Amino acid sequence: MKMVFRWFGEGNDTVTLEQIKQIPGVEGIVWALHDVPAGEEWPMDKILQVKEAADKAGLHMKVVESVNIHEDIKLGLPSRDLYIDNYKKTIVKLAEVGVKVICYNFMPVFDWVRTDLHKELEDGSTALFYEKEKVAHLNLEEQVQRINANPNFTMPGWEPERLGSLTELFDAYREVTEEQLFDNAKYFLEAIIPFAEKYDIRMAIHPDDPPWPIFGLPRIITSQANIRRFLGLVDSPYNGLTMCSGSLGANPANDIVGIVNEFADRIPFAHIRNVRVYENGDFIETSHRTTDGTVDIAGIVNALHENDYEGFCRPDHGRHIWGEQCRPGYGLYDRALGIMYLWGLWDANRRKLQSGRMGD
Ligand code: DNO
Ligand code: MN
């Protein structure tokens, strides 16, 4: 397991590379050019700026999250070929700086969705929260205004250029079924995977978050069966999965240990975090510790270890603790604690294996 840490870039993150370097066992950053709109080719000079900063800090940049997919690809519009071409050009450049994994998602319009970014937990920390009932009645206009009012940070999935054309986008998706979304994914994968293979970059689809349709928009990376179908669309090790325990874990019906066991050789990247799912379907992001949430984090790490997992791994969203002012879900403290918990589980497994006591 190779530990990496998400970094949003100079001036776009409260966490510094020097701080990341001091978290035990972290080898590299998970990065992206967050100011390049989806569909555009990434400029080499900006890629090289990140490389220079990473090199200086002694961190690698082998994992990118995300090269976003233009909506026209997800919608299956004729203009998709142009955006697929740009995607390929970006792949060539990323290969040049040593990128090995691209994490991306195939969610229409939005990335992760929450109803409260600072919901208080019993211990006074705050975390991202999802109120199921509220999303059913969410006033989108209000939400858009709220995000626009905080121009300091770009939030994944809520990029201003997407929000501007929200109404048109919703209209465009009106006729798109899950089946069509699968077809459009297949078209994308058939074009991209052979190319990714040539440049030795593993594509790793991120599960939908939450893993069910919202606002009437279809979502397909939601369950073990759908992941199986997606990975089968183009059956290559370069068509892989970002195993995100928090996203999949928002639906307690998902057997994440089972998912790890079934797709182990197709998981180049793992996001490990916990959530607590309540009986009414609401969920809150908790500390990474198994007993703090409803996701079997210990079981997941055990399963990765049993499958000799050699891919990349990062803690995912953390709580906001110790008064830290940070990008929602992406503070330093709780994610660093998360890493130490993951290492603890990993090393305990290794020790058991070494002393031949596995299965005791
Ligand atoms: C949620 C996060 C996501 C992820 C993107 C990948 O669990 O990991 O925001 O970064 O969906 O494209
Ligand atoms: Mn994730």
UniProtKB/TrEMBL annotation:
InterPro entries: Man_deHydtase, Xyl_isomerase-like_sf. GO terms for molecular function: mannonate dehydratase activity. Keywords: Iron, Lyase, Manganese. Its EC number is 4.2.1.8. Its cofactor is Fe(2+); Mn(2+). It catalyses: D-mannonate = 2-dehydro-3-deoxy-D-gluconate + H2O. Belongs to the mannonate dehydratase family. This is Mannonate dehydratase. It comes from Paenibacillus anseongense.
